[in-house]
Design goal:
Elements: H1 2-12, E1 16-22, E2 27-35, E3 40-50, E4 53-57, E5 68-72, E6 76-83, E7 89-92, E8 101-104, E9 114-119, E10 128-134, E11 139-145, H2 149-154, H3 164-175
Antiparallel strand pairs: 1-11, 2-3, 2-6, 3-4, 5-10, 6-7, 8-9, 9-10
């Protein structure tokens, strides 16, 4: 019901709603961890999809996990993450020495594909941890487009695509199962 009312309001403003399926995709990441003692460690990890959810492993022989964690005896200086799907490298080096730092995928800021947790040493434990987790983005994304006041003054209209009801019908095709009676 809520989406129906949103659609009616958007129509009243002569806008449209774009609908897009979001699905998890497998990827390969290279994670380069530079420690303050000068040591540099590179981890190559692979994400796979298991019953629609992202899983991760370090080698083909490992069991997939929801996340991977590495422990070091030296503080973390920087972390670099490269993805084969994006083709970019993100470098992070601003960490709080007293608190856990969580970093979300900056290439997909609205729907991050991964997160990194940096945990400095705690109490008597002298280890520092880095945890890499692929995030579940499965779902539907709705984008609302409304014409601006300026475009209304100039007489431009927002290009309205397919009827919203047709778009919802297309999305439902993905979730329909076969009924055998």
């Amino acid at each position: 019901m809520g989406l129906f009312f949103v659609n009616e309001i958007v129509k009243g403003y002569e806008g449209n709603i774009l609908v897009e399926n979001m699905i998890n995709k497998p990827d390969v990441y290279s994670i380069r961890i530079a420690l303050k003692n000068g040591e540099v460690i590179t981890k190559v990890v692979t994400t796979s999809i298991d019953t629609g959810r992202p899983m991760i492993c370090e080698s083909q022989h490992d069991q997939p996990h929801k996340s991977l964690q590495w422990t070091f005896n030296s503080p973390i200086n920087s972390v670099e993450v490269s993805s084969t799907a994006c083709g970019t490298t993100d470098i992070f080096n601003q960490f709080n020495d007293k608190k856990i730092t969580t970093i979300l995928d900056p290439e997909h800021s609205h729907f991050p594909y991964w997160s990194i947790g940096i945990q400095p040493k705690r109490g008597g434990n002298k280890t520092h941890n880095v945890q890499f987790t692929p995030l579940d983005i499965n779902g539907v994304r709705f984008s609302i487009r409304l014409p601006s006041a300026e475009s209304r003054m100039e007489g431009d209209q927002l290009a309205v695509g397919d009827d919203f009801d047709q778009e919802v019908g297309k999305l439902n095709e993905h979730f329909k199962g076969e009924f055998i009676g």
